[in-house]
């Protein structure tokens, strides 16, 4: 039976010490009730409370964290089967595969190219999350491959192989990091578990069937390793859909602890690049926490990253762009200044019209909590005080040699108030619709 936030709060120290990372014990209790944090985050909880809360507060899907020099990826901690029920929290990581049979120099160049891929999408930088290194030779070759990857990227790693001794040589090159290693199976799991524990790594676990997998994970947990990732050995589209859904449903709906871990998918095993992309798409939409690919194509990777961003965007929060001053068409200090809100659709509608007009200009994107112009105005998040505050905050006056700003036509009513907030400024009223901006800008240019 689920335990409420109030019930959890009664068992906490109630000191509001903030050592858990939250401002109050109540805030921590609510997060614990939602299974978004672990009880271990509170260093002061009593043993008696731990005994009462441990089982009920454990997240249904364990949070797995990979860390490297300056990079971190968190996967898991999900609490719903479908995004519209609440939201998904931690996006699956995209990893690209290299093999130790490849030339180390070629590995480094390949990794550098993939690592450099960054595309800005509605104010968000989309990029890969890490690399997977697969063993096909001895320990020396594997260690060389790991070093070659590290020469091209600092992102987190997954180390894949059948021999724990070979993987140990690769792990020796990753001092201070927290990688994911694998793969443990019913025959070799003890050696892999020892290796993972010794190196503070997470462990991929696999078996011939889901029943065997359910038998294996508790054995590894009893050995002292809780950071596990499940490989259900997907062989086809329908097989992947069925296995991923069963694992997620059993963990969430049935609270079946042996399946309460993130899932790793290997589209890299597909027969063709086209099939790889299709399998990766299914993996993102159906519960994979790690997606390992082999063929790098910027045009297809961009589509996959956008898909991931759309699925893992909180449906209760609008997509926002970063507030600030955006320069369009290389404006000079005498270019006009326009203002809009940071709702992504509003921003791109306005910015695209200014860009297509060919007229240079500064676009002040005010912080309106991601709302459109009229919605933000009605909610009190886009008013004269906020606009004036952002004019000063983002140094608009330092970028121009005039004191003139253009309001969206829908909020012309703010012009008088803005004159009071910005003494000496000329407040102009632009068109109501962004599509009319090009004609307007030609008139005021």
Give a nutshell description of this structure.
With 445 residues, the protein is of the alpha/beta class.
Note down, in words, how this protein is organized.
- The protein is α/β, with parallel strands linked by helices.
- The chain folds into 3 domains: 53 residues, Electron transport complex subunit B, putative Fe-S cluster (3-methyladenine DNA Glycosylase II, Chain A, domain 3, Orthogonal Bundle); 248 residues, Dihydropteroate synthase-like (TIM Barrel); 121 residues, Rossmann fold (3-Layer(aba) Sandwich), CATH 3.40.50.
- Helix content is 40%, strand content 18%.
- It has 17 helices and 17 strands.
- Helix 10 runs parallel beside helix 11 and helix 12 crosses helix 17.
- The longest helix is centred in the middle third of the chain and has 16 residues.
- The chain is globular.
- The protein starts with a helix and ends with a helix.
- The relative contact order is 0.08.
| Shape label | globular
How does the major sheet shape up?
A: 8 strands, parallel
Mean pLDDT: 93
Number of strands: 17
- Helix-strand makeup class: alpha/beta
CATH topology of the largest domain: TIM Barrel
How is the largest sheet built, in terms of strand order?
A: 10-9-8-7-6-3-12-11
The proportion of residues forming helix, as a percent range, comes to: 25-40%
CATH superfamily of the largest domain: Dihydropteroate synthase-like
CATH architecture of the largest domain: Alpha-Beta Barrel
Strand residue percentage: 15-25%
Low-confidence stretches: none
> Class of the largest domain in CATH?
Alpha Beta
CA gyration radius, whole angstroms: 26 Å
